[in-house]
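To illustrate the input format used throughout this study, we show a single complete record. The first block contains the structure-token representation of the backbone; no residue identities are included at this stage. The design step must infer an amino acid for every position from geometry alone.
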């Protein structure tokens, strides 16, 4: 981070699913199943995945996640997806409770044949559900509650409007979507962009009844016999993930019409400055001071107790706006594409056999952007520090670029490398201001086995290398 920030070409003053969608009156959209693109399906709720997610649930003790209330939507949602003949389902394993959604793997009864001779529904599906009632009690601040609902809207719109166009261009590293619907009427205007600041003075209690407000997404479900999730990753596994990222980026590369749609309808990357609470950047110097104090021994042992490092929070703050703008292209800009926006290892289903296609999941932060934002996050979130040393990091970036160019995308080396360095600094600004403001060695030790958490937030060697970069 230190070296990259020094190398950036910055102003001198800164350097001190193929589907058919139909709209409903409540902004809901039915995505009817297309012919299957794969024999395997996506999204596992295996015990390992559930265990990896479980530490996230601790912060949600105050959420109203009534089983009866949540279950009341499941069968009606399945019937809207597949028809009234479907009258039952079975929950497989535990629900996967994440900060902004609840997921569940569902086993369906044997399906009758449709008019085309195919079965009317698959044997298993994955339902992702976001109910406003789950969050109104815990997120008193309207901007935080709104952000959660916008994540759901972004993902549903991605499957409705963006993915079909990318599938038509040959992108298949996403699950097939059977049904997508959201209803935030009276809460969020349909034409309100996710990148707009939250309106001030909104009183949640004055909004329409939240009981029917939410988003529902029914996706393919994957066989654990063919796919896996893991973190941290080996270099080979990281290359699998970066190959899928290159395929995603190639599917929308400099496609101005598609990028205009993505810019208007989707969000921004999870760590994009426009999507963050302004308090994070305002408090970044204090956050870094807290980290520096908590990890002084480790910083000294790593040769990082220097004047420049001690002022890292201030330096990141001074370049934050510029770096974010450089990482946020317009639809007309060269090298713009659709990005995942939260490309951590646990958002990728990797083929156990490397020849099996990789599938990416959780598109709630999908947006128009620079592909290098996905690459920078993935490399530092998912790969152990010793593998990145001695040219390892550079080799992963080079592999991504070679794969992308092999798919027909023009990305000059000097431009690509600059974008990668900018994206690393952008990710660092987010991490210092948001994730490291309360970090301690003890907290990292407690999180060391949580695969959903970035390596640089659960491994001191990873954190020290990130500071050094």
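Output of the design step:
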């Amino acid at each position: 981070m230190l070296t990259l920030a020094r190398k950036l070409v910055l102003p001198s003053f800164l350097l001190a699913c193929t589907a058919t969608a139909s709209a409903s009156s409540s902004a809901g959209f039915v995505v009817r199943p297309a012919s299957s693109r794969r024999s395997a399906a996506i999204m596992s709720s295996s015990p390992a995945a559930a265990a990896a997610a479980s530490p996230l649930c601790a912060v949600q003790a105050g959420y109203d996640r009534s089983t009866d209330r949540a279950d009341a939507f499941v069968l009606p949602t399945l019937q809207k997806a597949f028809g009234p003949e479907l009258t039952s389902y079975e929950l497989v394993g535990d629900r996967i409770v994440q900060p902004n959604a609840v997921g569940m793997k569902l086993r369906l009864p044997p399906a009758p044949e449709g008019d085309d001779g195919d079965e009317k529904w698959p044997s298993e599906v994955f339902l992702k559900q976001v109910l406003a009632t789950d969050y109104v009690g815990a997120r008193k601040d309207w901007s935080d509650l709104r952000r959660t609902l916008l994540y759901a809207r972004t993902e549903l719109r991605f499957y409705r409007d963006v993915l079909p166009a990318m599938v038509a261009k040959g992108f298949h590293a996403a699950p097939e979507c059977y049904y997508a619907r959201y209803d935030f009427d009276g809460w969020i205007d349909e034409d309100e962009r996710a990148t707009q600041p939250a309106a001030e003075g909104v009183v949640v209690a004055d909004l329409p009844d939240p009981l029917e407000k939410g988003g529902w997404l029914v996706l393919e479900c994957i066989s654990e016999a063919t796919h896996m999730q893991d973190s941290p990753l080996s270099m080979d596994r990281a290359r699998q993930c970066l190959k899928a990222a290159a395929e995603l980026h190639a599917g929308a590369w400099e496609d101005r019409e598609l990028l205009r749609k993505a810019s208007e309808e989707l969000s921004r990357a999870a760590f994009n400055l426009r999507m963050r609470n302004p308090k994070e950047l305002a408090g970044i110097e204090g956050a870094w001071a807290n980290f520096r104090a908590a990890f002084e021994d480790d910083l000294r042992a790593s040769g990082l107790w220097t004047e420049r490092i001690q002022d890292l929070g201030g330096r990141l703050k001074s370049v934050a706006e510029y770096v974010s703008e450089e990482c946020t292209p317009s639809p007309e800009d060269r090298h713009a594409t659709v990005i995942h926006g939260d490309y951590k290892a646990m958002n990728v289903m990797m083929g156990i056999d490397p020849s099996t296609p990789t599938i990416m999941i959780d598109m709630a932060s999908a947006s128009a952007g620079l592909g290098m934002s996905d690459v920078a996050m993935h490399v530092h979130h998912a790969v152990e520090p010793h593998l990145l040393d001695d040219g390892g990091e550079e080799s992963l970036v080079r592999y991504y670029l070679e794969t992308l160019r092999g798919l027909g995308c023009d990305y000059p080396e000097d431009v690509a490398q600059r974008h990668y360095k900018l994206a690393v600094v952008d990710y660092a600004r987010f991490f210092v201001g948001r994730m490291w403001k309360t970090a301690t060695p003890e907290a990292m030790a407690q999180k060391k086995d949580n695969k959903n958490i970035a390596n640089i937030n659960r491994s001191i060697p990873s954190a020290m290398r990130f500071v050094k970069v």
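Structural context for interpreting the output: The two ends are 4 Å apart (CA to CA). Residues 2-29, 32-63 have pLDDT under 50 and may be disordered.
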